[in-house]
């Protein structure tokens, strides 16, 4: 019998852990552990100022934080290298002594990529790959010291997966990755044929929507299976309490949740609020989420439209706090859009959470959202970048309590049937188990097969 202490492990490579906005990753890690999978976590960054979700405390996997490399921007590369190379030199020295041929081969590939994927013929090499090679070496040396680690898995298929690919080449361990949103669609994050190379090198790839799966299948150029596995939600955790019937003089609340970034479309929600106010509709709107660079645009728009008394931006909250906030809302609206550079959401987790709480939801018909919401069946869909259509949909729900009730109940049924994390995580664990045991992978796993 295998010693439990030597049970085969998967090493998760993450840009940062724990990140407030990435509850789907912390929940996934926790559920994989409850299913018996042993994990180790490597975090490229140490995050500060993050809200702490309770599930993080339940995770048993050890977390290794890499030496903190400074930002490449604003420095000459030579100055950056002088400052940061000492942080990684010992690991790379030991790696070279252990595996000189594979180490030098990976280093040469890194240098080749930095030249091949530069923006133009006259531009400097793309030095971010050298930074990622240094970080990969630190991880590779660590996993070689722990023979229980037999597989590497990265979340988001740009930086973290580049590091996983380098670490895989040096260590000889297979790797896989989960692709999400901008990491798939923004060419500058995977320039040239880099995404195809990652897919050729990876043992398997996972993505969280059917739309993403079709996109990756179309561009992969290899025999790799792309597995669609929805993030899923703990439907025992997100359970709605009975709602009291609102009095006629009670002002309803429009709720939205998400980081204040352009692809969430919050500016169109704010404009829709202005339309509703001008129609004489009484309501409050709360947009709950952490501030980002785009936050100032939203704040300025609220001021320009004189909506300060109607629209509030309370900031980021924990999952535990968010459950209570969902309970206080009457309508959930998230007008997601495709940004000019191609960035977009897959299936926003907050939509799944709101639907699990039996909230009537409104969103847009882009990306993977129609895989979750069927218009007039379990929610409402409107065209992207259309404040008028968003305002009309919100008003239709505010004016019709029976419709809100019907859509909310159907929404929870959808989540319990197709997005229950106990099913989706089983699908992911089966992939990891197959890799750890050297078995063939089951093609195109998705949550529906486990419903």
The percent of residues in helical segments reads 40-55%
What's the number of structural domains? 2
CATH architectural group of the largest domain? 3-Layer(aba) Sandwich
Q: How large is the radius of gyration?
A: 23 Å
- The fraction of residues assigned to DSSP E strands is 5-15%
Reported by name, the CATH topology of the largest domain is Rossmann fold
Number of H- or I-type helical stretches: 17
Distance between the termini: 33 Å
CATH class of the largest domain: Alpha Beta
* Strand elements, count: 13
User: What structural class do helix, strand and pairing data support?
Assistant: alpha/beta
The biggest sheet, with number of strands, parallel, antiparallel or mixed sense and barrel status, is: 7 strands, parallel
Given as residue ranges, the uncertain stretches (5+ residues, pLDDT < 50) are: 443-451
Q: Which strands sit side by side, in order, in the main sheet?
A: 3-2-1-4-5-6-7
**Could you state the order of secondary-structure elements as H and E?**
EHEHEHHHEHEHHEHEEHEHEHEHEHEHHH
- Mass-distribution shape: globular
CATH homologous superfamily assignment of the largest domain: Glycogen Phosphorylase B
Mean pLDDT: 92
């Amino acid at each position: 019998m295998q010693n439990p202490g030597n049970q085969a492990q998967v090493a998760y490579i993450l840009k940062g852990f724990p990140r407030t906005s990435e509850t789907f990753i912390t929940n996934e890690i926790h559920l994989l552990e409850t299913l018996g999978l042993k994990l180790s976590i490597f975090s490229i960054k140490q995050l500060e100022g993050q809200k702490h979700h309770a599930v993080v405390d339940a995770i048993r996997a050890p977390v290794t934080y890499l030496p903190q490399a400074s930002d490449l921007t604003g420095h000459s590369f030579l100055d950056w290298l002088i400052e940061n190379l000492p942080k990684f030199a010992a690991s790379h020295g030991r790696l070279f002594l252990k595996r000189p041929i594979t180490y030098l081969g990976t280093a040469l590939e890194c240098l080749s990529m930095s030249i091949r994927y530069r923006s133009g013929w006259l531009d400097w090499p793309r030095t971010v790959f050298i930074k990622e090679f240094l970080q990969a070496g630190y991880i590779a040396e660590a996993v070689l010291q722990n023979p229980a680690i037999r597989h590497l898995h990265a979340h988001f298929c740009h930086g973290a997966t580049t590091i996983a690919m380098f670490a895989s080449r040096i260590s000889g361990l297979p790797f896989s990755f989960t692709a999400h949103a901008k990491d798939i669609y923004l060419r500058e994050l995977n320039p040239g044929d880099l995404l195809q190379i990652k897919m050729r090198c990876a043992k398997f790839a996972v993505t969280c929507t059917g739309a993403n799966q079709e996109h990756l299948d179309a561009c992969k150029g290899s025999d790799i299976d792309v597995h669609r596995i929805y993030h899923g939600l703990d439907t025992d955790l997100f359970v709605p309490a009975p709602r009291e019937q609102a009095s006629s003089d009670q002002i309803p609340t429009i709720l939205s949740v998400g980081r204040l970034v352009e692809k969430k479309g919050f500016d169109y929600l704010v404009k829709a609020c202005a339309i509703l106010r001008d129609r004489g509709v009484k309501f409050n709107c709360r947009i709950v989420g952490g501030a980002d660079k785009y936050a100032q645009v939203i704040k300025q728009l609220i001021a320009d439209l004189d909506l300060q008394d109607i629209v509030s931006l309370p900031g980021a909250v924990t999952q535990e706090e968010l459950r209570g906030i969902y309970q206080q809302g009457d309508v959930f609206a998230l007008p997601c859009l495709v940004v000019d550079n191609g960035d977009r959401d897959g299936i926003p987790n907050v939509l799944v959470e709101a639907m699990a709480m039996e909230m009537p939801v409104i969103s847009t018909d882009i990306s993977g959202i129609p895989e979750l919401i069927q218009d007039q069946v379990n929610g409402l869909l409107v065209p992207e970048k259309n404040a008028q259509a968003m305002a009309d949909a919100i008003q239709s729900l505010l004016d019709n309590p029976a419709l809100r009730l019907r859509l909310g109940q159907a929404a929870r049924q959808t989540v319990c049937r197709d997005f229950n994390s106990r099913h989706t995580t089983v699908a992911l664990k089966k992939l990891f188990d197959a890799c750890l045991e050297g078995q063939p992978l089951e093609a195109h796993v998705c949550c529906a097969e486990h419903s």
